[in-house]
Design brief:
Blueprint lengths: L6 E2 L13 E8 L3 E7 L11 E5 L23
């Protein structure tokens, strides 16, 4: 995936696998394009300092349907 700026929108092509990213926020670009703000796990040389925006509301790349999360738990030490 080649990305530098703007809101990524899937156009066409084969799905080439799965990848883990971290959704950290959301917003609207140019007052009309809703997006998820996502942290990539590579490094800050990729994308926009390691982050990218992906279209919100269209489930591009499964960003809305294939999501999982964890809840913090208190560690009990005996």
């Amino acid at each position: 995936m080649y990305y530098r700026s703007g809101v990524y929108k899937y156009i066409s092509g084969a799905d080439f696998g799965r990848y883990t990213v971290k959704n950290i926020g959301w917003g609207v670009e140019n007052s009309k394009v809703p997006y998820w703000l996502v942290a990539n796990l590579w490094n800050t040389d990729w994308g926009s300092d390691g982050f990218f925006k992906i279209l919100r509301g269209s489930d591009d790349c499964g960003i809305e349907s294939k999501i999982s999360a964890g809840l913090p738990a208190q560690l009990t030490v005996f």
